[in-house]
Amino acid sequence: MTPFGEKVRAMRTERGIAQKEMAAAIGVSPAYLSALEHGRRGVPNWAMVQKIIGFFNVIWDEAEALEELARRSDPRVTVDTAGLSPEATLLANRLAAQISTLSPDDIDRIVALLDEIDQKSASRSSSRSLTSQP
After folding, report:
1. How many CB atoms lie within 10 A of CB 66?
2. In this structure, which topology does domain 3-71 adopt according to CATH?
């Protein structure tokens, strides 16, 4: 299951909507919606994400969060380390080899570390833009 599929399924279930009903409303087959929810489909295109957002009638922050989840929900990720350091290639290969053995706690710790790195990067980026202004 992907993060996007999990969220769509949770939203549908919370509202008591059958998969068949939602599928008809957004113009897809129940099999497609099931595959999307279970991570057997790739990342949905922008138009499909918009149909789902419209179906659930979500706005602003929640809509942006769904769009971000969709972007980060490719079940078949490819990591291109060409031109990066040998350590980056080693990291990508180790993660690919070991991801199926990681516990939920291990995954949470790795995600938290990546979030921390993102925050530091964003902070450095905004600091640079402030100091470069006249």
Report:
1. 20
2. 434 Repressor (Amino-terminal Domain) (1.10.260)
Angstrom distance (rounded) from CA 97 to CA 92: 9
Interval 19-61: pLDDT, tens: 999 999 999 999 999 999 999 988 899 999 999 999 999 999 9
Helix residue spans in the chain (DSSP H): 3-14, 19-26, 30-37, 46-56, 60-71, 86-98, 104-131
Q: Where are the domains of the chain?
A: 3-71, 86-131
Spatial neighbors of 66 by CB under 8 A, at least 6 apart, are 4, 7, 49, 52, 53, 58
pLDDT at 28: 97
Measured between alpha carbons, how far is 104 from 23 in angstroms, rounded to an integer?
Answer: 31
pTM of the entire structure?
Answer: 0.73
